[in-house]
Design a protein that fits this description.
Blueprint: H1 2-29, H2 39-51, H3 54-63, H4 69-81, H5 88-111, H6 116-124, H7 127-133, H8 140-155, H9 159-175, H10 196-225, H11 232-237, H12 245-259, H13 263-268, H14 278-292, H15 313-332, H16 338-354, H17 368-371, H18 381-404
Helix pairs in contact: 1-5, 1-6, 2-3, 2-4, 4-5, 5-6, 5-8, 8-9, 9-10, 12-15, 14-15
Length: about 425
């Protein structure tokens, strides 16, 4: 019996290893795809750290509001490998892909041990995650590092593991400030051996490490470049603006449900989701779909990318309205266990806070892996093959669009439709 269980465990590890290595290899092959969107800005910053040309970093501050951590690491990687700094940030993303695969599998095994490898495959080939895992921007790497930190927090039992998890979380936060919103998750491990007092200690450790890292990072930036948080140009663009909060919440929630189809639909129509009646759920979704047609235009980057060339605005907003209803109904059935409630509450907090400023669907990368934990209660085996085929088609379409439609924005095309998402 012991040998049988060991063989099963070994086979599971081989499956996970094969999935992760295949995905990483495909991303390495895709390193030669054209640089698009904000990659140009990160390439400039990475080149600045390699060669010291002040004009390069000034251009970065004109084009992007993110921190300098990812381009700095990209410069270190490109220098160590003796490649162009233009590939440094992409190599950072590909490297973080391996970290993410191992960490996400650790989290999934705690929640769905039997189907962890299938869920990992579905997460890795999610079109949004796939696209940004191949981009040299501050989107995928901070998420991967944050997931790694939370995976360690959720299994933490010693001061050494707490210190390691806290350090990784601090790194994720100075890679992208938005990662700080994931802090509550560190206290919601499925491990019953973690007491309430221990969970509070994890929260304090993660929060203290992130605060210290932010102070150090911003002090260095202020002494070097003369500003705090981000360059002055972006403080007004990214200011808190509650006027679009309702529109943004609907779009963010709709995107989360849309990105996890059909799992989000299964969660919506599960017996635990409210209302219990299937007819009532369908009615709510249809009404939300109709109301979605009248959603105001997005105040940020909340469109459908190259698909907008063929879809009208009313179709995309109707879809997002319908899937927002799916999102809300699905959350009502996440269960009463502390881990599920914690993940659901953190997801809602993340969406609500981000909705107070200029929105972008790529911000959802940070919370998307954890949202999968809320929608995996159904039978995923019967949907795996068609979902994999659909994701492969969308990834292929995105690659073609990247080749033919993608552009690197210049200083006069900062945000909005001219980016040709």
């Amino acid at each position: 019996m012991k040998q049988c269980s060991e063989l099963v465990e070994l086979a599971a590890r081989w499956r996970v290893t094969a999935i992760a290595l295949t995905v990483i290899l495909l991303h390495i092959v895709g390193l030669g795809l054209p640089f698009v969107n904000q990659e140009g800005a990160f390439n400039l910053a990475s080149a600045y750290f390699r060669f010291g040309d002040a004009a390069l970093i000034r251009n970065f501050f004109e084009l992007d509001a993110n921190t300098l951590t990812v381009p700095f690491i990209g410069a270190l990687v490109s220098g160590a490998l003796h490649v162009s700094p233009y590939y440094g940030c992409r190599l950072v993303a590909v490297g973080c892909l391996g970290i993410f695969a191992v960490s996400m599998h650790s989290i999934l095994r705690q929640r769905e041990p039997k189907n962890a490898h299938l869920l990992l495959l579905l997460v890795l080939i999610n079109p949004l995650l796939w696209i940004f895992a191949g981009r040299g921007t501050a989107d995928f790497p901070p998420m991967a590092i944050a997931v790694a930190s939370i995976a360690i927090f959720w299994r933490a039992r010693s001061n050494i593991t707490i210190a390691a998890a806290s350090s990784l979380f601090a790194l994720a936060v100075i890679m992208k400030y938005h990662a700080a919103l994931l802090l509550p998750l560190v206290a919601f491990s499925p491990e019953q051996s973690q007491s309430a007092r221990f969970r509070v200690m994890l929260l304090v450790a993660g929060g203290a490490a992130a605060t210290f890292a932010l102070l150090v990072y911003n002090t260095v930036v202020f002494r070097t470049f003369g500003f705090w948080v981000t360059s002055p140009k972006w403080l007004s663009v990214l200011r808190v603006d509650p006027s679009n909060i309702g529109n943004n919440i609907v779009r963010y929630g709709g995107y989360l449900a849309l990105l996890t189809v059909p799992l989000s639909i299964q969660a919506c129509f599960s017996s635990s989701a409210l209302p219990r009646s299937t007819a009532a759920k369908v009615t709510i979704i249809l009404v939300a779909c109709v109301l979605g047609v009248w959603l105001p235009p997005s105040s940020g980057e909340m469109n459908f990318g190259p698909l907008d060339r063929w879809l009208g605005d009313w179709i995309s907003t109707a879809l997002l309205g319908a899937f927002f209803a799916v999102f809300v109904i699905g959350l009502s059935g996440t269960g009463r266990s502390l881990p599920n409630l914690g993940v659901a509450a953190t997801t809602v907090l993340f969406v609500a806070v981000l909705s107070m400023s200029r929105p972008a669907q790529r911000y959802l990368i940070l919370v998307l892996p954890f949202y999968y934990l809320l929608v995996t209660g159904g039978d995923i085996r019967r949907v795996t093959i068609p979902l994999v085929l659909l994701c492969v088609m969308l990834i292929g379409f995105a690659a073609v669009a990247q080749i033919y439609f993608g552009v690197i924005p210049s200083a006069d095309t900062p945000f909005g439709p001219y980016r040709n998402w």
